[in-house]
Design goal:
The complex is a heterodimer of chains A (109) and B (115).
Chain A: E1 4-7, E2 10-14, E3 19-25, E4 29-37, E5 43-48, E6 52-56, E7 59-64, E8 69-74, E9 83-91, E10 98-99, E11 103-108
Chain B: E1 4-7, E2 10-13, E3 19-25, E4 31-37, E5 44-50, E6 53-57, E7 64-67, E8 75-78, E9 87-94, H1 97-100, E10 105-106, E11 110-114
Parallel strand pairs in B: 2-11
Antiparallel strand pairs in B: 1-3, 3-8, 4-5, 4-9, 5-6, 7-8, 9-10, 9-11
The chains are: A mainly beta (109), B mainly beta (115).
Amino acid sequence: GQQVQQSPTSLVLQEGENAELQCNFSTSLNSMQWFYQRPGGSLISVFYNPSGTKQSGRLTSTTVIKERRSSLHISSSQITDSGTYLCAIRANSGTYQRFGTGTKLQVVP
Amino acid sequence: DPKIIQKPKYLVAVTGSEKILICEQYLGHNAMYWYRQSAKKPLEFMFSYSYQKLMDNQTASSRFQPQSSKKNHLDLQITALKPDDSATYFCASSPPPEINQDTQYFGPGTRLLVL
């Protein structure tokens, strides 16, 4: 089955609202990374966060290894935040990253 | 300046033909990867190379063959193309683990359409 699951699948926010994106994984991990992707665009690394909490501007990532989950919090959303957010893990026993199916975020005025 | 170059940006091919996707990175990384993204599936890992040697291959079909002529090059040759091969193919690279574990940098992708 799918080792990396993201929720929600899609999300529509009004500008200024906050968002919480979830990533759940079914295996113990060695690394966890969040990516941002515009439609038809490449992937841009947002956070490398295998454990704990990291913040960068309006974005905060929290990974709780014991609970096998990671979250990405976007505060005061902006229209330019629209796109797809992907999480990826590398399992302890793995040699490559596995990606979730992504959360498609749309921020409207 | 782009640090990971993929060529071509768009590619249309006929079923049964052969194409080569080019990837060059100028980040000084030793590890390079290929991923595939289609509408039907999540981003899928295909290959990883380190110091020009194959480290992992998760692609079932031998029609996909990576080629590394230089340390900063990892091309992808695809033979006997099928419509199901239509996808965006991303190249990525990462620094050695001792610098920043597992942070991967992606190229802009090559969008392949097989008719």
